[in-house]
Amino acid sequence: MAKEPKTAEPFIDPKASIAELREAAAECTGCELYRNATQTVFGDGPVRAKVMLVGEQPGDAEDKDGHPSVGPAGRLLDKALAEVGIERERVYVTNAVKHFKWVLRGKKRLHQKPRTIEVNACVPWLLAEIDRIQPRVIVCLGATAAQALLGKAFLVSKQRGKPIPSNLANMVMATVHPSSLLRQPDPARREDDRAQFVADLRAAAKALK
Q1: How many Å apart are CA 96 and CA 128, to the nearest integer?
Q2: pLDDT digits (tens, 9 = 90+) for 102-155
Q3: What b/e string do you get for 100-127 counting C-beta neighbours within 10 Å, with b at 16 or more?
Q4: DSSP string, 110-157
Q5: Is 4 inside any structural domain?
Q6: Residue 209: predicted pLDDT
Q7: Please, what's the b/e burial string for 162-200 (b: 16 or more CB within 10 A of its CB; e: otherwise)?
Q8: How many domains does the chain have?
């Protein structure tokens, strides 16, 4: 029995367009996560978007829908983007990991953080997306996305909202994932966290001017 690849690299044609990459990703078996996911959730957005947002992985709603950022966290993100003057329709949204990793609790599929080996296996897709889109600004949403592109030593808690030197785009920065705001139980703290999240996105918006 042939061994399955441990990375997405064999599935990526260096000359493929973003549309062709999306089709190829649908057949990706570069890590074990494809086994329990409904489908691959590839990035969505304009081919030459100026802004790319990178999250961790699809959630339950995204896994079923087939598109990134369509669940509760996605709706929160959309509102924040509107506040800072970034049109959602002009943003390319994707994830560091393209398959939903989950554990069953009762009847609910709950998010599980992907392992480093799973993130590393999927990074070639993300780098291929960046290469095709050529965004001016990349915003990493959460630690998994930030560390996938900026290294394991990167700490969102200490470096959020700050431009990070990188050859990936004119500006690369990180902030929290919007899902973390939804998990904050204290209303006052949640509103403070949301205000900081919006401030981080506003810094990205300014970089486009």
Answers
A1: 12
A2: 999 999 999 999 999 999 999 999 999 999 999 999 999 999 999 999 999 999
A3: bbbeeeeeebeeeebeeebbbbbbbbbb
A4: EE-PPPHHHHHHHHHHHHHHHHHH--SEEEEESHHHHHHHH-TT--HH
A5: no
A6: 84
A7: eebeeebbebbbbbbbbbbbeeeeeeeeeeebbeebeeb
A8: 1
C-alpha gyration radius of the chain: 16
Contact 14, 98 (CB under 8 A): no
Write the pLDDT tens digit of every residue in 53-105: 999 999 999 999 999 999 999 999 999 999 999 999 999 999 999 999 999 99
What is the domain extent for residue 98?
9-207
Please tell me the distance from the alpha carbon of residue 179 to that of residue 83, in angstroms, as a whole number: 18
CATH code for position 185: 3.40.470.10
pTM exceeding the 0.85 threshold for the entire prediction: yes
